[in-house]
Amino acid sequence: MFSASTLPPGPLEKVFQYIDLHQDEFVQMLKEWVAVESDFFLLQLSDGQTLPIPPILLAELGSDPKKPTVCFYGHLDVQPARQEDGWLTDPYTLTEVDGKLYGRGTTDNKGPVLAWINAVSAFKALDEDLPVNIKFLIEGMEESGSLALEELVRKEKSGFFSSVDCIVISDNLWISRRKPALIYGTRGNSYFTVEVKCRDQDFHSGTFGGILNEPMADLVALLGSLVDASGRILVPGIYGHVAPVTEEEKRVYEAIDLDVEEYRNSSQVKKFLFDTKEELLMHLWRYPSLSIHGIEGAFHEPGAKTVIPGRVIGKFSIRLVPHMDMSVVETQVKQHLEYIFSKRNSSNQMTVSMALGLHPWIANISDHQYLAAKRAIKTVFGTEPDMIRDGSTIPIAKILQDTTQKSVIMLPLGTVDDGEHSQNEKINRWNYIEGSKLFAAFFLEMAKLHSSCVPGLLDQ
Amino acid sequence: MFSASTLPPGPLEKVFQYIDLHQDEFVQMLKEWVAVESDFFLLQLSDGQTLPIPPILLAELGSDPKKPTVCFYGHLDVQPARQEDGWLTDPYTLTEVDGKLYGRGTTDNKGPVLAWINAVSAFKALDEDLPVNIKFLIEGMEESGSLALEELVRKEKSGFFSSVDCIVISDNLWISRRKPALIYGTRGNSYFTVEVKCRDQDFHSGTFGGILNEPMADLVALLGSLVDASGRILVPGIYGHVAPVTEEEKRVYEAIDLDVEEYRNSSQVKKFLFDTKEELLMHLWRYPSLSIHGIEGAFHEPGAKTVIPGRVIGKFSIRLVPHMDMSVVETQVKQHLEYIFSKRNSSNQMTVSMALGLHPWIANISDHQYLAAKRAIKTVFGTEPDMIRDGSTIPIAKILQDTTQKSVIMLPLGTVDDGEHSQNEKINRWNYIEGSKLFAAFFLEMAKLHSSCVPGLLDQ
């Protein structure tokens, strides 16, 4: 794209060349970041003590009033990972195999945070003028519900955020392995725990098996009442507030470039619940889903322990979509489980709690930054992006939009097969490096759009 | 019971005095044994390597042909225990509180093994003639199905075991806190795993929630199909071979001294599935039961991880009673789960395995050693024992009886509230010390019965 030309290279060409030439340094830096086991998942210790919340970083570079100010949100905490969970390499030692950079946090979210820094540092190293003022908002509690962040954002609304023109989040994935995407919506999440308790101590199944209402039998019946084999949530009334599908919306889904067969293959799944692209994407993005995550307190190790757990806690969550109301969902789930439990006539004690509640988010895709991002994608990747939503929850999007009243854009770098939250998480070297270029191009496009809107220029 | 008398004390009185005087040494020895973390639960390492099976100890003391030979079976391995599972003290540091000796293995089975040794060593220390020849069979794999033991017993049938008159097992509990018991039967156990697999890697519930047959949903439905809220096993045909209750049997149950309310209180259970003593005991001893132990591969830690486990393994077991056939049970369970799974039309893969199968055991209570044990109990505790069965599985009883054709007796020392296999396992100091006396008295009663049966004596 940037072959020899008679004209001297422009600033962006020089930045791109710089990024290509220094890519091994950028990978090395990512390796150093991955080596930090930033698993801040559990601040609550078993003895009731709480650890301090990791500091939230606010930073800025430049304050030229003629330039737009873009704020990048990222997080440096990661999901817990242990090699014995099924990692082929040590999760905290970045390992490159066939152009794939394996390691916990490579794609979620250390790689994208560094790509933004790489873009900025390329301009600085070349002594090129940065086209935008830069702000950073970096936290360490995203995987645990971004504790304390909302309070800070509210406090800084008229401080740090007052000069911001748009906020960029790069904490999700393309829907394909090749084609870039822009994201304009995410699902919310209601995370529930349901505890069934007979007593605190476990029982021996020889000594007590046959005469107890066993908590696991109760819990399995409760969890089994939540969702049917077709993926439909069985909690009465749960679909009552889900926005109906419009004709316009259908056309957006039809336009998305998704090879269902390739998607299925790359996901290593034998068969999905739905066969068409539109059904699949709608069930990922605009319909709620319910997943059962596991059970705390039961026997979970390899081997054959003959225990009757005395107290077990089931964990499940419902991904929320517009216009579901979190408190209505909470009531519906509690009433449903109480009804199922009451039918069993068990002598155990059941407690249902909504441990976490996060709203869904929808952006206005006519905002400036969506146009700038589309143009930057065209420059770097030579294609239009898929306009997509994300089935997962990025609570900060909703928090930032509602609290600062600034526009938010999600500009992902990683590909569909990156395995965020899973074993063998990776980011492709190519995506990491081209992603650094994408952010550089985005700076320039934002500056162009900004100058075209500056009142003085428009008046001419 | 052994107050001052004009007669010089007999050998048993001296042994009892010795045991009382040296009880702190005996407790100290138990403390040293508990400190050995003999958790040999997992010989199969995650990389496929297997550890060697701990050695099986055969030992003997005395070979006087005029004396009976009693063989004591015990085990030194323990169930896994970690303080964070809910122990109030370190499980491997014996801690005495109010006459209770807390620690993993105190009652199951290190305490009883040591009580036997204490009895023998009291005779030796006093230079009193041991009334019996002693044999020991001590293993380290009881909690894992007594691997390799059956082979050894078979090999030693005409060697080590040929001179044995009876085999004593003390690996279970009284049914009350005060009244001793003799045990003449145990349940067997069929331990099943049911694996549901979509893929080896986990999924993120945001990225995949809504379009998958989630393995946890399948597994919860499978486990939920096994047993109803009243404890009845739902596997078709499972009750077909269970021995019907006879009138004579009913009377045995009626004679047992059990205060249901106290039993319920000591078990810290709000309500049992049955209200009468007979129903409770029959469901513990002579009817099968099904317990769900847990799930491997799902999220099991505290906190709120939003994972869709890719591959999960449910664990459950069925306690078997006469005359259930293990291979029939295996077929019934597999067919049932295959039927339930097929109805779900899931694209996942299900695999059911019977990981462990152990037969039930019933003794002939007219054998000599039951009479000797009853007399010894009368001497030490001043009461008749409860004649009971045990709901748990002591596979070695069946193996020893079938392979050596020798009579087996179960002579427990611990009380119903000892919490074997659970958090805060304990043995009472009183039971440990009186139990040491009980074994000494048992030696003497065995010798008396033996001499009354020696052909030369009977001919006189």
From TrEMBL, chains A, B:
Alphabetical UniProt keywords: Hydrolase, Metal-binding, Metalloprotease, Phosphoprotein, Protease
A cellular component annotation (GO) from this entry: cytosol
Biological process according to GO: proteolysis
Signal peptide: none
Annotated Peptidase M20 dimerisation domain residues: 185-340
Database matches in Gene3D superfamilies: 3.30.70.360, Zn peptidases (3.40.630.10)
Keyword Phosphoprotein: yes
Gene Ontology molecular function, alphabetical: dipeptidase activity; metal ion binding; metallopeptidase activity
SUPFAM superfamilies reported for this sequence: Zn-dependent exopeptidases
UniProt KW Translocase keyword: no
InterPro entries per record: ArgE/DapE_CS (IPR001261), Cyt/Met_Dipeptidase (IPR051458), Peptidase_M20 (IPR002933), Peptidase_M20_dimer (IPR011650)
One matching Pfam family: Peptidase_M20
Family the entry assigns: Belongs to the peptidase M20A family.
Protein name, entry field: Beta-Ala-His dipeptidase
Source organism: Bison bison bison (North American plains bison)
Source taxonomy: Eukaryota, Metazoa, Chordata, Craniata, Vertebrata
